[in-house]
Write a structure and sequence with these properties.
The structure holds 2 protein chains of 2 kinds.
Chain A: E1 12-16, H1 20-32, E2 37-41, H2 44-53, E3 58-62, H3 71-80, E4 89-94, H4 99-103, E5 112-115, H5 120-136, H6 138-145, H7 149-162, H8 167-180, H9 184-197, H10 201-213, H11 217-228, H12 235-247, H13 251-264, H14 269-281, H15 285-299, H16 308-316, H17 318-323, H18 326-346, H19 351-367, H20 371-387, H21 393-406, H22 409-423, H23 427-440, H24 445-461, H25 465-476, H26 483-498, H27 504-518, H28 527-546
Parallel strand pairs in A: 1-2, 1-3, 3-4, 4-5
Helix pairs in contact in A: 2-3, 6-7, 7-8, 8-9, 8-10, 9-10, 10-11, 10-12, 11-12, 12-13, 13-14, 14-15, 14-16, 15-16, 16-18, 16-19, 18-19, 19-20, 19-21, 21-22, 21-23, 23-24, 24-25, 24-26, 25-26, 26-27, 26-28, 27-28
Chain B: H1 3-37, H2 42-71, E1 81-84, H3 85-95, H4 97-102, E2 106-111, E3 116-119, H5 121-137, E4 142-149, E5 153-160, H6 186-197, E6 201-202, E7 205-206, E8 208-213, E9 220-227
Classes of the chains: A mainly alpha, B alpha+beta.
Amino acid sequence: MGLDVIPYHKMKALIIEDLAEMRSSMKSMLSNMGLSDIESVNNGEEALKRIQKEHYDIIFSDYELGKGKDGQQILEEVRYSNLIKASSIYILVTAAQTVDMVMGALEFEPDGYIVKPVTLDLLRTRLNRIVRTKDIYKEINKALDRKNIDGALDACNRLAIQKPKFALPAYRIKGRILLNEKRWEEAKDLYETVLGIKRVAWAVLGMGKVCYQINEFEEAKPLLEGLAATNSKYVEAQDWLAKVLEAQGKYKAAQKVLQAAIDESPKSCLRQQELGRVAELNGDPIAMRKACRKAISLGKNSVFAKPEPFIGLAKALQVSIKSGSIRESKLATQESMKLIESARMDFHLTSLQNLKCALVEAETLYNSKNEEEGQLAYRLAKNLMDASSDLSIDDQIDVFSSRLLFETDAEIQKSKQGLLSEIGDNKRLQTKFYRVIENSLSNKPGERLELIKKRATELLDKDDIEDAVELLVRGMAYPNADDELKLLGFNAIVSRFEKGRSDPELLEKGDELSMALGKIPSDNPMHPQIEKFKQRWADVTNEQNEE
Amino acid sequence: MSKTKNELFGALLAATIHEIKNRFGLLYSDLDSLLTSLNVSDQQQQQVEAIKSEAEFVGNELVRVLATYKSLDDNFAINIDQQFTIEFLEDTIARHGFTFRANQVSVDLDCDEECSGFFDLGIATIVMDTLIYNAIKAGAKSLLFCADEDDAYLSIAVHDNGPGFPEHMLGNDIQQSKLSVDENSTGLGLYFAQQLLQSHKEGDRQGHLELAKSEKLPGAKVILKLPM
């Protein structure tokens, strides 16, 4: 394999380890192996500072580093912002109990693992192997370090031909490069080829990502679901599954998936940011608050820090500002203002982020009983809004809830019509838009109910059964759900089953509705329709029993 | 016991083992750093090694039992990726370093650098650990790990110089009914290992174990067969 004698004496190493004895024991083992230029730090923040300043050939990081960032997070930051060369080696040192956690990282994978307790024998064996393996990919990494993308892709192809045994790892790197370069079609071809040879997890994930990027959500979903269900904890599959579900307008399912991923691995700043964002779409201020707080604290000294969790937390606090006790309201108002200030001070805000800050500031003022100041602040924010011509439809929907708070009915109707015509037939945007309105009506349950009925009828007319079911199941859970809504819900569930898409939970719901609606007296104008749906329900469920 | 009671019992057992495993892990890591920081005589050092070895043994056993339990679960799906055998075997041997030293077991490895196969690393690790413990329990002082591949299978063989298997156990038909009490838990470990390997399928080929007489050492040979 070429590299018979490894020139450890020329290599510079960094040890990231919180325990002093372990640091010195690691250091003495490494010098025993011939390394002389060895530095060490006791936490992730310090490590990132060093890595930005110095070049290291080998980095050893303990996985568990006490309170701060863990070894996996350091690796993610390092790789995300290209702090180390592709040719550098990053090794995670982990206890046997955390091996599962560490092995689940497909996207940000270290070059190798060493399982504790680390002995000289173990270190020597593992390190030699990791260095030799890394050497096989030398040409690819050299090209990557020179930012020569095509050179790196060529090197992948060459390796696959010259050493067929290393074809799969070479394709794995190639896929990663293609995804980075947004060359979706080439990436898709590559993953198709690999999956034709063997169904390896990284290729399934890669294919899932490509399908998401080219809007083939129905194809992406089963791939990512399958991967998320395997015993190895492939949390990235859950992140991407959540993206797919969100793109399909299934916000609740997306939040559930993200929550599960966070229960598995709570320290990821990006994942917490995502959860905060999706919880907002679901109108779930409690989850939003929790996730944004976590994202802010995990973002300290991190390249992943963003203003969005600050703005999001300020938004989530509005409930307390408006309806909390006097004390709660006061504290939440203070916190919200402080968050807005931090967002403005600590980040270089884009015009959209600036606008969002201004809007949440206006809401904070308005909800804390300073209505006039709030209105004034909103008018200022509105100037920003009118001035930013480049707001995407998504952005416009995001800020629409503020319009609902501050503008007159006539103004709202006007901008609603305008926005709806821009949204046009785009289903994802339609779903998102109605969801924003639905969330904003949480204190007007009557209007909310009417909105749901109207939208559900529209969806049923368009034969968009899936979305109708999702909306109506949510609607029927509201305390003021009436028989008319239940009939729509029954209609949607019956139609779904008739299309051959049954579901155990919905089966229960359908039976429940059939019973409940059956009790409606026969002189009720809905009665004939109810009887028809009951008959169809009985037919479709009997058919299934027979199968 | 009814099925639900059985399930409950299984879940309770798994949870308990999990708890013990975690606590033991903490205990072990404390013990390890304490023992490392002590200045001891050579003779004491041998005792230290023995304690570490025994602790590692117990710890690994718990991890193995738990992993086996989880892996036999209905909702379990395996994760196959290309693995380079040399890396896998070197790691396996290095992980058992204490145990080998404490039991004065010598180890050899014969594996081509490019030999590779497709398997679930977690499962293969459990199976290898089982084979190594079995060999040491049986009194082997010398182990040889070999690997090679053909179009159908990757074969990883563990040879030892222990007493070898009784005649009726040889072959690849490892069944619970064949196990007798005096074989201790050896057979049971093999039975579970076999169950775990069967989750590796490719066409009509399936992962399995083969028990044989070693042609390279005086004792037993166990071959892990993993379909390509």
